[in-house]
Design a protein that fits this description.
The protein is mainly beta and 190 residues long. It has one helix spanning 55-59; strands spanning 2-6, 13-17, 40-44, 48-54, 64-71, 82-83, 88-94, 96-101, 104-109, 113-116, 124-127, 134-141, 146-150, 155-160, 173-178. The strands form four sheets. It has a six-stranded antiparallel β-sheet.
């Protein structure tokens, strides 16, 4: 497979030929090639559909996550959300779409880099509003425990043992609650 990429607005370009790279992961170095990993397909209904390759985990990262995502036309990758502990960032590799962020809808395209610091002002969602696939890299700190808030559905997710997107085998707590769920500190302690 041969891929070519040109930095928009410049004469700088890269050409990549998969024959130049070994097909086996390195045993001594934390190096992987994107073609060595299978796509993981995730979907829910007709609105949410994405393919993912967890590059950071495959290469052995523990405190930094990195995934390659591909969102088909008309779909969203994840529900609108923000994190209380983790920061995320996205670099758009191919395609166009819409970023929902903090109540706005912003056009995004190849070459855009978007930072999502922890907190409510960084609530975000990627939507492919084009007729072609939207492909991007998503980077994340891997802090645990973390709480993720979902403003559209009024719920929170609580994660401990492994950060969201981290190892499910290491996760000791993974639960979702309505944001208005509350109990007294002393309930059940009689």
């Amino acid at each position: 497979m041969t891929l070519s990429w040109q930095l928009p607005g410049t004469n700088f370009s890269l050409r990549w030929d998969s024959k130049q790279f070994p097909k086996k992961m390195s045993d001594t170095h934390k190096i992987i090639h994107v073609e060595q990993l299978p796509w993981i397909e995730l979907s829910h209904g007709h609105r949410f559909r994405v393919q993912r390759k967890q590059l950071g985990a495959a290469a052995g990262n523990e405190k930094l996550g990195c995934s390659l995502y591909e969102v088909p036309p008309g779909c969203r990758s994840w529900p609108y959300h923000y994190h209380y502990a983790n920061e995320e960032a996205i670099y758009v590799l191919e395609g166009r779409g819409t970023l929902r962020m903090a109540g706005e809808e912003i056009a995004i395209a190849s070459g855009d880099y978007i930072a999502f610091p922890a907190g409510e002002s960084s609530a975000h969602q990627m939507i492919n509003t084009s007729e072609a696939p939207l492909r991007y890299l998503c980077f994340s700190t891997m802090i645990e425990p973390d709480i993720t808030a979902y403003p559209d559905s009024n719920k929170i997710g609580v994660f401990a043992g492994a950060a969201p997107g981290g190892s499910k085998e290491q996760r000791t707590l993974n639960a979702y609650f309505p944001t208005d769920a509350n109990t007294d500190y002393w309930q059940g302690e009689e």
